[in-house]
Amino acid sequence: MKRYGMVIGVNAEKLEEYKRLHAAAWPGVLKMIKECNIENYSIYYKDGLLFSYYEYVGTDYEADMAKMAADPETQRWWAVCEPCQRPLDTRKEGEWWATMEEVFHLD
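Predicted structure:
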């Protein structure tokens, strides 16, 4: 299992919409997340930033992420959510959510 933390900005005028979307996340999108070996997934908000945390329990992260990205319902979900988000200027090339370095963990 590998833990992932990511961060992205949220447009202030879209925060409530983003919260509403996630309070009623589409069942097909949730199913795809689980099919792609993601567990214990949470998104937190603080001061204009969204922080996501999840655990990847599969064996081929790149293949699972490609499977998710190819899913038509997930693509529609992202199209609805992305206008709410504001990617960080410091993100790596090709990233939407910026990956974070884990600096501490205690089980």
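Summary: The first strand starts at residue 2 and ends at 10.
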